[in-house]
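$ ./design --mode recover --in tokens.txt
reading tokens...
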């Protein structure tokens, strides 16, 4: 099979235009083209009067070798890559050896658990939060009734932080082994729409994620894996040998229960397990501070973004709700960028800690809510902005999240401001034409009280610059809701080339919380990589058959 990339057709092309374009491109007759399938579909809307669909197609031809020889210098005609997943290790039949433990059932832990189960190692997955259905009720409790459950919320519980999200499933990570394809394939098996395998920017929205997570749990359990919910790892027992080697021996839960560690432990905590990060530090596990970003969520009517992006084609079913990516380097040397943009979605209360406010965005599969929202965040750096050790970034996040809680007036109401007032440096007293979607509600105020000065200065400059890229972006009625702090982990749980903690044998830090991923897909891919390292180490221990 051959893959042709960058095959462009106009937005409203007829179905038969695609095989015709393939034949033209390869200069072959209809009889030579045996079959074709779409491998990927994107759109190019740089010229909104002439939006193009951009295909990669896999073709089966009568004489592929001859065609390939003819196009040997053409980088858009190649043999189709093998994207199938192959296990790197397998447990012996009826494996009775040590069982790996996975801490955290977010995308990283889910995929680490799934791969280990598929290899036959019967993992134990421990998760501080509840099963996803119960967790859903608790999460909505904050949004509807201002009731925060500190152990069961948008950050904690089965499915992890990505469960109530836009469900964007792409990433810019380097992925030469096509592990992202394994993730998407498993998601489809678990109930995701098949189009995620071909769309360039797939998304699944929040409701489907709930049932997918349940389906993946059933798969892991059917393979001999085991879940323990409402089990928060509160302590580690680490044995130090005479030569200084530290080895993980047991996990201790909030109940006081102890789980002896027989095999490797994957630590897939996510970026909001601040209490656990403190515990790791207290137990001497190697941590370091890493950059992250802070800012606000911005909302515009989706129709403004669609119009600016797609012009007369706004609303076309093949395009869906328009997304955007923005970035601006400021005079104060700060970079401001859009983060986790959610077309046709809502801004959500994303705190996991009482007395603090943090925002994020989510959407349904249909992406047909009134507003587009996106984080507008400013990159910050440990050495420059929060010196003071590996946990200083957490202290910084907490400080500003408390300020935002106070500015909102309590009850997890978020502080908000019209963009026009924000740029003019005056508090907002009323909304304009844009109605914010954040629940339990917003208080119009001055966001300059809720973020460091350098963040505010950079955002003021960048929002005007963004208005030059997307006409109307800097409309005075656009609403800013604050504050966005959970963009990525402020710490890294440092690991070596073997994926193991650099100073604690048996501990495998993984995913977003450990600082090795950002987003659902990259966290899941990291989970696979770590599961492979764990699987290899367990297979090496197994007695020869
Ligand atoms: P997490 O998903 O955070 O999972 C960590 C798990 O560990 C949690 O379930 C937690 O309860 C558990 N845990 C923590 N501490 C302990 C402990 N001590 N003991 C036991 N268990 C513990 N990314 C995208 O790619 N696309 C999106 O559209 C998107 N939208 C988002 C929307 C929202 C509202 C949020 C909050 C995030 C969104 N993200 C999105 C980011 C994405 O969710 C994360 O990047 C991803 O979930 C990280 O995966 P993870 O498995 O590393 O960590």
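writing sequence...
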């Amino acid at each position: 099979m051959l893959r042709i990339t960058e095959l462009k057709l106009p937005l409203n092309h007829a179905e038969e235009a695609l095989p015709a374009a393939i034949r033209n491109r390869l200069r072959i007759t209809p009889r030579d083209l045996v079959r074709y399938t779409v491998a990927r579909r994107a759109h190019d809307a740089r010229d909104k009067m002439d939006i193009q669909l951009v295909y990669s197609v896999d073709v089966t031809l009568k004489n592929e070798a001859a065609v390939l020889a003819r196009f040997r210098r053409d980088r858009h005609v190649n043999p189709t890559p093998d994207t199938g997943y192959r296990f790197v290790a397998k447990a012996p039949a009826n494996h009775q050896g040590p069982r790996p433990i996975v801490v955290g059932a977010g995308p990283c832990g889910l995929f680490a658990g799934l791969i280990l189960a598929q290899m036959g190692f019967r993992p134990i997955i421990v998760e501080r939060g509840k099963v996803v259905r119960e967790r859903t009720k608790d999460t909505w409790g904050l949004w509807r009734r201002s009731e925060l459950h500190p152990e069961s919320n948008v950050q904690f519980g089965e499915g992890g932080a990505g469960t109530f999200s836009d469900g964007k499933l792409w990433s810019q990570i380097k992925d030469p082994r096509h592990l992202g394809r394994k993730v998407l394939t498993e998601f489809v098996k678990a109930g995701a729409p098949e189009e995620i395998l071909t769309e360039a920017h797939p998304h699944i929205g929040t409701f489907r994620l709930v049932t997918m997570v349940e389906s993946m749990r059933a798969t892991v359990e059917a393979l001999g894996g085991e879940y323990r919910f409402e089990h928060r790892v509160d302590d580690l027992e680490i044995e130090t040998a005479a030569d200084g080697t530290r080895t993980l021996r047991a996990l201790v839960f909030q109940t006081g229960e102890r789980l002896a560690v027989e095999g490797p432990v994957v630590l897939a905590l996510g970026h909001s397990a601040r209490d656990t990060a403190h515990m790791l530090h207290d137990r001497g596990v190697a941590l370091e501070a890493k950059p992250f970003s802070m800012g606000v969520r911005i909302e515009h009517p989706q129709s403004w973004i669609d119009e600016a992006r797609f012009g007369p084609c706004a609303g076309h079913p093949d395009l869906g709700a328009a997304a955007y990516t923005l970035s601006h380097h400021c005079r104060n040397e700060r970079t401001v960028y859009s983060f986790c943009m959610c077309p046709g979605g809502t801004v959500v209360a994303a705190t996991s800690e009482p007395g603090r406010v943090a925002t994020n965005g989510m959407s349904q599969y249909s992406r047909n809510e009134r507003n587009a929202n996106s984080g507008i965040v400013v990159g910050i750096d440990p050495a420059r902005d929060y010196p003071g050790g590996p946990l200083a970034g957490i202290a910084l996040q907490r400080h500003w999240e408390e300020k935002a809680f106070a500015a909102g007036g309590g009850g997890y109401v978020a502080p908000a401001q019209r963009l026009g007032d924000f740029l003019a440096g005056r508090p907002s007293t009323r909304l304009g034409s844009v109605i914010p979607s954040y629940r339990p509600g917003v208080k119009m105020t001055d966001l300059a009280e809720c973020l460091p000065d350098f963040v505010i200065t950079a955002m003021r400059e960048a929002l005007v610059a963004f208005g030059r890229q997307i006409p109307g972006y800097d409309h005075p009625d656009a609403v800013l809701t604050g504050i966005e702090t959970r963009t990525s982990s402020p710490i890294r749980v440092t690991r070596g080339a073997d994926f193991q903690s650099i100073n604690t044998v048996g501990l495998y830090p993984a995913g977003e919380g450990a600082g090795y991923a950002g987003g659902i897909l990259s966290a899941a891919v990291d989970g696979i990589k770590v599961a492979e390292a764990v699987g290899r180490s367990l297979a090496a221990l197994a007695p020869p058959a």
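exit 0
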